[in-house]
Amino acid sequence: MTLVKFIAEPVFDVSLFLNAGLYIIQLYKLIKTKNADNISLTTFMLFFFILLIQALQAYYLSDYGYFVGMIASVIASGSLIIFIIYYRFKRRLKIRA
Questions:
Q1: Residues 71, 55: contact at Cβ < 8 Å?
Q2: What is the DSSP letter of 38?
Q3: How far is 18 from 34, CA to CA, in rounded Å?
Q4: Cα gap 88→30, rounded to integer Å
Q5: How far, in Å, are 10, 13, 96, 97 from residue 44 at the CA level?
Q6: Distance separating alpha carbons of residues 12 and 69, to the nearest angstrom
Q7: Cα–chain-centroid distance for residue 31?
Q8: Is the separation of the CB atoms in 23 and 73 below 8 Å?
């Protein structure tokens, strides 16, 4: 194993979990403010599908470190999408009432 690969692989694996963490930070802000008006649902849905495809690729390549990191991002991104839809739907119901 080369030195570059020895250093790059753990850094790459950690970055996958940092990626998931970024979604969690956005999710926390969304839950705290209970307002999804300034968040692009389309963007996060596209991210979700890209992450899902990357997770499937990692599984196919038997790269389980990459797979676990991508699944963490898929779960975080999916949760964010659910809350965006929930808060938008809830807000629209209040407006109509």
A1: yes
A2: T
A3: 24
A4: 11
A5: 27, 22, 27, 29
A6: 10
A7: 15
A8: yes
Question: Looking at residue 39, what DSSP letter applies?
Answer: S
3-state secondary structure at position 29: helix
86 and 67 Cβ atoms separated by less than 8 Å? no
pLDDT tens over the chain, length 97 residues: 687 777 878 888 788 778 888 889 999 999 999 999 889 999 999 999 999 999 999 999 998 888 998 999 999 999 999 999 999 988 777 766 5
Type of residue found at 20: A
pTM over 0.70: yes
Rounded distance, CA 40 to CA 55, Å?
Answer: 23
Token pair of 28 as six digits: 């926390």
How far apart (Å, rounded) are the C-alpha atoms in residues 86 and 91? 9
